[in-house]
Amino acid sequence: MRDDPTHLAEQVAVELRHLVYLLRRYSAGQPLTSQQYGVLGSLEHGPRRMTALAEEHAVQLPTMTVQINRLEDAGLVARGTDPSDARVRTVELTAEGRERLQNVRRTRIANLTRELAALTEEERATLAAALPVLAKLGRS
Amino acid sequence: MRDDPTHLAEQVAVELRHLVYLLRRYSAGQPLTSQQYGVLGSLEHGPRRMTALAEEHAVQLPTMTVQINRLEDAGLVARGTDPSDARVRTVELTAEGRERLQNVRRTRIANLTRELAALTEEERATLAAALPVLAKLGRS
DNA sequence: CCTCATGCTTAGCCCAACTAACTTAGTTTT
DNA sequence: AAAACTAAGTTAGTTGGGCTAAGCATGAGG
User: Residue B116: pLDDT band by 50, 70, 90 thresholds?
Assistant: First the structure.
């Protein structure tokens, strides 16, 4: 039973499902969906093109078009054009979008922080140690 | 910077997003969706009632009704009745459903196992240690 | 009985993903 | 230089998965 990858895989699968449910519970009732917040986050460091956004979010272009349409209607992002290539549309945060992003991120981090603060210091250290391992999953 | 819950929260948030994308990539193109496999898994140890399934999957009853309808149409589950209360519908796996569940679980665990086998023994131990901590999140 | 609560389904809505088809703008080929 | 191809986005249409509201039985209590 010691260091059995299959047994570990089963336990990981169980926890992943738990986390998915947790995330859904957290994002219920928010003004924007978690996908939309994710897109706003991608725009934090400057304008991006549609293809870049779609690829980063593992989504097809039409899906991203619809998301950006909604965010544009809500006044949170603005479309622009690339002077060197008239085919590409750029997307950037509006002032309101940036503000919304900061607010959401603050409260979300605050929630998570509260959960983590309820753990022992040792548990937090255990979690912190595992993060780089989680990051390696799916990179193969 | 040592044991800073806020800083840890930010890193955890990043990894959670990574895991969500990973899961979506894994379940793309499967004959059933991950939700439907999840429901099949709940039926592994015998019949359940609709309310129990809905609660376990953190979903409203109508949503579960639709899911069970689809699984029933596909011949993977069968509805029954509770002899002691004519209001409740029970749901159980058909032989085909059980077979499908076993196949899917095998291949999914196999995939995860392959990923985990690519890690070092120490990394697996780190991950295993963190699982109980992850399980505690959201229980507050 | 009549009323109320419970378990489930139906109907109708919205969001998020997909593919297919189209438009427009660059790039290559001849 | 014109034709053919490729690339970037958008639009249209479908599917899945979630929700609430409303309806229909059935069970439980006055």
Answer: very high
Quick check: helix, strand or coil at residue B2? coil
Q: Does B65 contact strand C, using a CB cutoff of 7 Å?
A: yes
CA–CA dist A27, A107 (Å, integer): 12
Distance, in angstroms, between A85 CA and closest chain B CA? 30
Q: Shortest CA–C1' contact from A79: which nucleotide?
A: D9
Q: Kindly indicate whether the domain formed by B32-136 is annotated with CATH number 1.10.3210.10.
A: no
Question: Which run of H or E residues covers position A15?
Answer: helix A5-27
d(CA B15, CA B21): 10
Structural tokens at position B14: 């990043």
Among A91, A6, A96, which residue's Cα sits nearest to residue A47?
A91
pLDDT in tens, B76-94: 999 999 999 999 999 999 9
Q: How far is A88 from B127, CA to CA, in rounded Å?
A: 42
Nearest CB among B5, B57, B115 relative to A113 is that of B5
Could you report the per-residue pLDDT of A74-130, keeping only the tens digit for each?
999 999 999 999 999 999 999 999 999 999 999 888 988 999 999 999 999 999 999
Cα B24 to the center of its chain, rounded Å: 13
What residue segments make up the domains of chain A, in order of their start? 32-136
Quote the strand ranges of B27-139, DSSP E: 48-49, 77-82, 85-93
Element (H, E) at A100: helix A95-117
As a whole number, mean pLDDT of residues A44-49 equals: 97
Nucleotide nearest to B65 (CA to C1'): C9
If you average pLDDT over every residue of chain A, what do you get? 92
Q: What is the pLDDT of residue B22?
A: 85
Mean pLDDT, all residues of chain B: 92
**Which residues 6+ apart lie within 8 Å of B1 measured at CB?**
B7
